C-alpha cells in the first residue's frame, strides 16, 4: 500500500494536518456544541475561516505528497 500523502514524520505534513483538523473542528461547532473550545481554536488560527484552514491544510499535505 502506497502512503504517498501520509507522512507523519514530516514537518510539512504536520503543518498541513494541524490547520486541517482545526478547520474541521471549527466547521462542526453546531454539531458538537463546544463553543468555548471552538472560540479558542478559532483565535489560535488568527480567526481564519474554516474553509481557508481546511484548504490550506490539504494544499500543504498535497505538496508534501507531490515531493515524495
Give a short summary of the structure.
With 68 residues, the protein is mainly alpha-helical. The chain has helices at residues 11-27, 29-32, 35-44, 50-66. Helix 1 packs antiparallel against helix 3 and helix 1 packs antiparallel against helix 4 (50-66).
Question: Could you give the topology of this structure?
Answer:
Blueprint: H1 11-27, H2 29-32, H3 35-44, H4 50-66
Number of strands: 0
Radius of gyration: 13 Å
Class computed from helices, strands and strand pairing: mainly alpha
Order of helices and strands: HHHH
Largest sheet: none
Rounded mean pLDDT is 92
Low-confidence stretches: none
Shape: elongated
Strand content: under 5%
Verbal overview:
- The protein has 68 residues and is mostly helical.
- It has one domain.
- 71% of the residues lie in helices and 0% in strands.
- The chain contains four helices and no strands.
- The longest helix has 17 residues.
List keywords for this structure.
68 residues, mainly alpha
Amino acid at each position: 500500500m502506497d502512503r504517498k500523502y501520509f507522512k507523519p514524520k514530516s514537518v510539512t505534513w504536520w503543518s498541513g494536518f494541524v490547520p486541517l483538523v482545526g478547520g474541521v473542528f471549527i466547521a462542526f461547532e453546531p454539531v458538537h456544541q463546544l463553543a468555548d473550545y471552538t472560540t479558542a481554536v478559532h483565535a489560535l488560527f488568527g480567526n481564519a475561516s474554516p474553509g481557508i484552514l481546511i484548504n490550506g491544510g490539504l494544499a500543504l499535505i498535497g505538496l508534501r505528497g507531490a515531493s515524495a
